[in-house]
Write a structure and sequence with these properties.
This protein is mainly α and 222 residues long. The chain has 12 helices and no strands. Helix 1 runs antiparallel to helix 2. The longest helix is centred in the first third of the chain and has 22 residues. The chain starts with a helix and ends in a 7-residue tail after the last helix.
């Protein structure tokens, strides 16, 4: 029922944007908003065309650059995504979401230090559990276990219902090659907490639980 109601609202919004653009094809606000609607429908070519035209009409509008960056990211063009996110940041230097988005694109390019720098700036602007955990994931990827553990801990302190932070911490405590960060009992507790909060749908959660069980000697359960 909720999905049907949302689809009806989206259809009405699209009709409104189309009508506005019939009256004024260069109405950039309507173009941008139609682009967002196209993007939500997965019609990326149409969304890109609308964002391109919006930028032509109003290049100062940061959201158009950001949303075009999102399309590039979704289609795997990470270099173009970084360029567009950078343009958005030039126009809105206090946008934490733009820094976080650019960090993800930097990570996909293997530019890990740049990703950490962008995540850090995003956290300075607006500290939240998701972005802190994302930075923790980069640190863990690089084997910087202390920093990764600190980020997961900080994320839990900010939001103790954020399961992914527990999962990240559990993985380090169960599998870290540096024994000083291993804690089998706490790894199992954290892995179980992550699943309690987020369910068993994600394979990474189950993989982490299995690693924690193995670390704790529960090989049959693993």
């Amino acid at each position: 029922k909720d999905a049907s109601a949302a689809a009806e609202l989206d259809a009405r919004a699209m009709a409104d944007f189309q009508e506005a653009l019939k009256r004024d094809p260069d109405k950039w606000q309507a173009l941008h908003n139609r682009g967002v609607s196209y993007a939500l429908l997965g019609e990326f070519d149409n969304a890109m065309a609308d964002f391109n035209r919006t930028i032509e009409l109003n290049p100062k509008f940061a959201h158009a650059w950001f949303n075009r960056g999102e399309i590039h990211y979704e289609t795997g063009d990470y270099a173009e995504a970084v360029r567009d996110y950078s343009q958005a940041i030039q126009r809105a230097s206090d946008d934490a979401e733009a820094f976080a988005a650019r960090a993800h694109a930097q990570f996909q390019q293997g530019r890990y230090q740049s990703a950490i720098s962008d995540f850090t700036q995003s956290i300075r602007l607006k500290a939240d559990a998701v972005t802190i955990s994302d930075r923790g994931d980069v640190y863990a990827h690089l084997g910087q276990w202390q920093r990764a553990a600190q980020d997961y801990r900080q994320a839990v302190e900010l939001d103790d219902s954020f399961g992914r932070a527990y999962r990240g911490a559990a993985w380090i405590m169960a599998t870290c090659p540096d024994p000083q960060f291993r804690d089998a009992a706490l790894a199992l507790q954290s892995a179980e907490k992550a699943i309690e909060l987020d369910g068993e749908n994600g394979w990474r959660y189950l993989d982490t639980l299995a690693a924690a069980q193995a670390s704790a000697g529960q090989f049959d359960e693993a």
